[in-house]
Structures are given as C-alpha cells and as structure tokens.
Prior knowledge:
Layout: H1 6-10, H2 18-32, H3 41-57, H4 60-69, H5 79-82, H6 99-105, E1 122-128, H7 130-135, E2 137-148, E3 164-166, E4 175-180, E5 183-188, E6 197-199, E7 211-222, E8 230-234, E9 250-256, E10 263-265, E11 268-276, H8 277-282, E12 284-289, E13 295-300, E14 309-312, E15 328-335, H9 342-355, H10 365-381
Helix pairs in contact: 2-3
Amino acid sequence: MAKQDYYDTLGVKKDASADDLKKAYRKLAMKFHPDRNPDNKDAEAKFKDVTEAYEVLKDDQKRAAYDRFGHAAFENGGPGGGQGGFSGGFDFGGGGLGDIFDQMFGGAMGGGRQRQRGGADLRAGVEIDLTEAFAGTKVNLRVPSRVTCEACTGTGSEDKAKGSETCATCQGHGRVRSQQGFFMVERTCPTCNGAGRTIRNPCKVCRGAGTVQRERTLQVSIPAGVEDGTRIRLSGEGEAGGQGLPNGDLYVHVSVRPHPIFERQDAHISIRVPVRMTQAALGGEVEVPVIDGTKAKVKIPAGTQTGDQFRLRGKGFSVLRSPARGDMYIQVMVETPKNLTAKQKELLEQFEATNTKDDGGKTNPESEGFFAKVKEFFEGRS
Length: 382
Ligand SMILES: [Zn+2]
Ligand SMILES: [Zn+2]
C-alpha cells in the first residue's frame, strides 16, 4: 500500500512553517491520541501516522531529504544506500511512540515514563596502517570522558555513608506535574534534574554529580586481520554513570590507511611489480616484499607479458581470529626502457633487425595475430 504524503497526513501545504506544522500536529495528535480513543485501532494508526509525519517534517534536515526523495529517503538506508544520516530507515529513536508527544505536551496524556539511564556511549576513531591491520596492534586512545569522582567514590556526597536521599520536590518520581490551562503539564523535576534523589551534602569536587570530566588514556587491542570500517565495542568504557548507574560503552571505529605497495582484497593481497623488458623476455627471478616484512622470490618465465599474474600461497593477509593467511597475487607490468644509451640503442636496433624476418609469428604472436586480423578487416571492406 502506498504511503500517504506526510504533508497530506498533517493537512498542511508543502511550504508550511514550523509553527503551522506544530499547530496541525497538535490538533491531530490530540484528536487521535490512544488515551482518548481506547481500543480504536484506526485512531491508533492515525496517531502513529501523524506522529511519524511530524517527526520528519519538524526536522529541517529530514524534511529536506523527504522533499527531495519522498518516503524513499527513509527506506533501506535512504537514497544511495546509506549515505547521509538516515540509514536504518525510520526510527522512533528507541523511545517508542509518544516521546515526541511528551516533549511537546509534557506528558499531558500518557504520564511520564521513567527510564534508568547510565553514562553516555562514546565514539572514537583510530587510523592504522595496513601492516598494523595485518599483524594486529595496540592503540592508546585519549578519551575525553566523565569518570567516577574519586573524592566521593561516585556517591556525589561529601558524606559517603549517607549519600543521597529521596528528592522532596518530586518524592523520587523525577518529574513534577502542574495544571496549565487545559493541560496537565509534566516536567523533569527542577530540584533533582530527574534523578529522583538529591545529595544531602554535595561533594565539593563534582558538585554532587558523582562524575568528573577527565581525559582518560585507554589501550585498545586491534586484532590481526581487522578490516577498514570495523567497529570495536568496549563494554562499560563509555562515560561513567555516576550515583550507582551503569557506565556507557565505547565504540572504536577503525580505519585502515591505504598502503603504497600492497592492496588488500579480503584475505588476499595484490601487488603490481614492474619487470624489465629483457627480464620478461628472457625469464628470471624477481624479489618482492611481503606484508609480514619478509621478502619472497617469484620466478618469471621467459615471455612474460604485462598483466600476467603469479600467486604466492599463504603470503596474503591475516584472517580475523584465525592463524590462516590468504594468498599474495603478483601482477607483472613490463617496463619499456627509456633514456637509452648509445650502446643500448645500438643493441636494440640490432635486435629489431632480427625481429623483422619472417619466423612464422613465433617471436611476437600477439602482433602477428593482431596484424592478421587487421589485414582481414581491410580485405573484408573492399
Ligand atoms: Zn564527588
Ligand atoms: Zn526531584
């Protein structure tokens, strides 16, 4: 079923102002709110639709994306497959339907939900070389973060034994209600900031928060075989929760710098090696670098061409959580010599003279084959 246009859903024009949107949403949300329409599935669906429409249109960035791409902006990771900030499709932000309604009306209808919140999750990025990704490495991260206050051991109180007490303003609910005209308005308690508890004798170092802002140094182990774009989660290494609440997590995003010699393809490595024209013609051995810091020898048979590929088994990239390794592919690039000395020029001219005699196409089969086709092409036209 085709989805209704968000502007139509809210009954507003495409150029509606933020205020128009808010008014339209307020009217419809009040009309269809589940508390006013118990056991009415249609009303519930309408309430969801108008909330979704408003959620998108109230946000300038999302509204611009919607104006440009329509509903496709929020489906399957958005236009272009996840570029832009809307990957994952439409999402009520984990808070469920009604959060936005509560923000607007202060929980007038549904009553406040109390969610226990710990410290915030943190994100950090590290950039490593391909050789480090191959062998695995340890990276020291400096994380600006809230950490547990040492002075009060996180209780937030100078008096560690007593710590906190139930907030007198909200009786521990964390929210307070008051009548404002038509609405019963519920707000976060101004005394305890929603924590539901107040500190009797606040710690002088953290002023009662139980946490302080500090830069921590954290050593992160990057496993061998890690890929560019890998996300490593360090549980509990995010911001400290304080006052007995759980810590957030730390997410480390690993990016791997491109290497000037080696190119990675999953567990394999490819490398382009220039080979002298004479080496390619006569055959020989070339020495190539290996990602593990060693060297390997590759036999080049006589008559090797540009683009010919040789494989060294087990000399490729490391495989994550495994001792196995992929292979290394050596791609040959035959180099035509430049800036010849008089002697070299003379030798090559002598060589070229031998080249012209008819040998049945054995020396230069590619050229022989090509010119035979060219001949056919012109004959076919006449
Ligand atoms: Zn403290
Ligand atoms: Zn309170």
